[in-house]
Design brief:
Blueprint (H helix, E strand, L loop, with lengths): L1 E6 L15 E2 L2 E2 H10 L2 E7 L3
Parallel strand pairs: 1-4
Antiparallel strand pairs: 2-3
């Protein structure tokens, strides 16, 4: 399998908060992206500030 990096950047000036915290229904977009990547990639590493 192929590994993946999920880049979860910092705050968005126009949005006013971290884009990774956006929600689609009950799920954060970063969590959704990780879930989708895990279906086809191994490992999946999330890289972000802090």
């Amino acid at each position: 399998m192929i590994g993946a990096l999920l880049l979860t950047g910092g705050a968005s000036r126009r949005l006013g908060f971290d884009k990774a915290e956006l929600r689609l229904g009950d799920e954060r977009l970063a969590d959704r992206a990780a879930r989708v990547l895990l279906a086809v990639c191994d490992p999946v590493l999330e890289v972000g500030p802090g």
